[in-house]
Amino acid sequence: MRDKRIDVLVANIRAERRRKRVSQDALCSKINISTRSLSAIENGWQKPSVFVVYDIAKALEIDINVLLKGL
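RESULT FIELD:
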């Protein structure tokens, strides 16, 4: 059974990345993870660590609470 909080988190990550018009490749370069890992995170197949969520927020220049909204 999937955790709905993860679904919300990954939807927020994908939405903010797209809103900022940042490609997966560009974001991965900034936070030093593979595009395969980011794709797995955005599709809910892999749970991101708190460190990755923090790095994503920092790379997108947003407050981490934006990514955590609705949890």
